[in-house]
UniProtKB/TrEMBL annotation:
Residues 642-802 form the UBC core domain. One of its GO terms (molecular function) is ubiquitin conjugating enzyme activity. Residues 1-40 form the UBA domain. Residues 41-54, 76-113 have a biased composition (Acidic residues). Residues 500-527 form a coiled coil. Residues 40-113, 247-268, 297-341, 880-909 are annotated as: Disordered. This is Ubiquitin-conjugating enzyme family protein. Residues 297-309 have a biased composition (Polar residues). It holds the Pfam family UQ_con. Keywords: Coiled coil, Transferase, Ubl conjugation pathway. PANTHER family: (E3-INDEPENDENT) E2 UBIQUITIN-CONJUGATING ENZYME (PTHR46116).
Amino acid sequence: MGDRALSELIDMGIPLGRAVAALKRSKGDAMSAAERVFAGEFDDIPSNDEEVDGAEGSSSVQDKADSVMIHYNEDNAMDEDEMGHEDDEDDEDDEDDMNDDNFDYDEDMSDDEQMASDPYAGIFFSKDRVEDIIEPIETEETTTISIPGINTTEVKILGRGEWMSGCPESGEQSFLFQLYNTLEEGRMPCSARCGHSFTRKREDFFCLFPKFPQYTIYLNRIIRPHCPQCHQITCLACGERVDRPSALHSQHTKDKAPMVSAPDIPSPTTQEALLHCPNLQGVILGVGLHMIEKTFSQSKDSTSSTENSGKAPPSKKRKTNGSPPLATGKGAIKGTGYAGNMQEDRTGQIAAEKAQKKADQQVATILRQVQQFLPNPHRAGGPATSDYLVHPTALAHLRRRSAFMNDLLRNDSLFDMSQRGDIYRALFDWLEIVSNNESLASMLGMPQMRQAKSVLSPTVPSSLIITYEGAPSPRELLENVVLQAKAALKGLEGVPLAQIEGLELTEEELRTNIKELEKKEAERVERESLDENNVLKAFCSLRIIKSAETIDKRLVETKGKAFVQRMKEQLPRIDESGIQIEEIPAEGQTDEEIIKMYEEWATRARFQYVDLRTGSNIMDAPSYKHAYSALITDIELDNAPKRSLAIAKELAILTTSLPVAWHSSVFLRVDEARVDVLKAMIIGPEGTPYENGCLLFDIFLPLEYNQRCPLVKYMTTNGGKWRYNPNLYADGKVCLSLLGTWQGPGWIAGQSTLLQVLISIQSLILCEEPYLNEPGWANMSGSAQSKAYNANIRRMVLADAMANNIKNPPHPFEYEIKTHFRLKAKAIRQQIEKWREMDDSKEVEADYWGGAHAHTSVTSALSKRSFEAAAKEVLRLLDELEGKVQPGPKAEKGGKIRSPKEGKKKPPL
């Protein structure tokens, strides 16, 4: 028994003890030994047994064996024999893990549930799982192949190591090894047993052609050789005779007209030959998925390089006629409309979009080509044997090499998906086939193992240590898109979609020639395809939502209802109503736990549908407590289909894209009946004079939206008295170039979004030195005027954006305001102490300019508040929210304090 044979077995992932025993049984034949191990003959030998008799391998071999697979499972991987259950003493830890979105993929299922076969039953999966796998570094091999009509000279051969690469589960490696070993055997007897042998080599099956159709054409030419002695046709992949057409071919020949394949899609006759047996299915999918991986990786690299090359320095500013002089210099605040170019330079963006479109077409093409060979019982023309008998290597490759699904689903923007329709249509076609196959659907609910890093092995020559880390399952990532699809459908509610009737022919039309009928049918199809509302509705309901429902249905069949219920509890969701503050305890939690709790709550609460109506007016039309109430009642929701389509796409984006963080978040409320009526609340960003204040905005999407920008009004003005920012006026005006209220890069019809407006307000208006937002003052960073301006804003925030909002939280953010301040009470107390040291001991000025302007600041006595008075009020209210003191008297509008004797007592929180 030589070290070389032992090293080969260890390279395959076989533990040392089993490798030694198998070599002894096989008399030193590495291939025979591997087959015996993978067949399970030596499962009784512990995988970590290093003291097996006869283990005379060198220390290097020993080191190699020790590092084949290293587990770093932070969840303490559960015993497979117990179907994923730890000891009872660890139950509390399990509950904590469950809250962290970690749960066993394979839990015990109810005895009364009839389960379909799950090929991965009993295997532990977790998003926190980490494994190090040793994989060999193979020398690239090529071969020369000539095919008539295809100018192919030299192609790469997919080596055994690359074929078997990936994070292994259960017995996957044995099946991968056996199939590769079988297909590279030199001689294969004729299926008629006439004595003739065919030559079979790995170049026949494992060549990586530049294009996938070249591979299938080549394979189709050599896969069914005729025996020169008995003339029997034999399948080169499985060695069985081919003496009658398959079901696919039989169905095809029954058709009067031949089936026409799309460009670059294998013809029915080619598919018939290549779907003959599970062995062919396994090798074609394995090679095809490797080619998809390569194409997808190259597409990401090409788009990334284009984006980087498109980043050119901004052109010089050009002032338009009648515009005020713009601020220049280092301190100019970009994006507010007061600095920067008059028009946006989109050269780089356009180049990136073209590169993205080209890359998407390449990936979509190969996805459509390879998906023809996915196991599909609903195959057009009838299923093949391999559609039911899925080869284990097909399962292994689909599980290991479907990272492209996660990468595409991780882009959870329905708007972006609609812009990149080619690749996402191909993706959902792929998901439809996989989710409708009971053998494949379960893997869509598994956390994926993705390659995180690779380093050279210090102990095993010519090897890499690949670290694989758990990642969300495709089903989990799909949920964000499902939420957006549902939001888009809600945005289309009430919109009269184009009614496309079937083609009904009169007797006169029946007498016309066929060309005229074909022309009318083409016009009907074109009308249907041009109705964007119909297209979006079909994409959301028939592709996205239906895919999720189908996956869930298959998971119920394979994993049980309890598993699916647990999975759904961990998925993102939109809460239907405000979350009660009492539901979230904060006392006794560490700072890290409170931050995590806050961000989880804010993620759930950031987007909701609510009733913003306040009743009816004299015309029996709904009225709204909204800055644009008059406009709202004048416009009917369903009389502008294009506007509704734009709103539907906007809502889809906003459901999952609103920024959420401990240091600043954005909350949005949409009227459940009028989706063009919205209210937003932005939490003042950390490090600014607005920090932790609740700043509210009323938003209306006008009839011309999105050819025209949204209407936005600032509402946190202390009753129209205080101006918080050069861009936020006391009358509610928001000065932002995106909103057309200042010259500069403005709203781009069909491309700009409400999300951009909200983020611009959050990051560019609510900035560290708002004084610099005023034209001509951008160079005054750190000046006494800027510091005084910040001090005045801090007093406003304490008195109004904090205290007034806690005492009288505006609808519909009552719960969100109280929860925000209660969870952040400790941080806000520390913030007040910090602000106290920075205060200048003055009182609030309604429109303060620090003497730099000749503005007259008119501030009523009721509006004037010192820092100490405002801070004291906020601290008292925080104590009330935390239950440390009883609620005090309630302040009415205008600043008057109402005692309990003057009115009803405020009930305790």
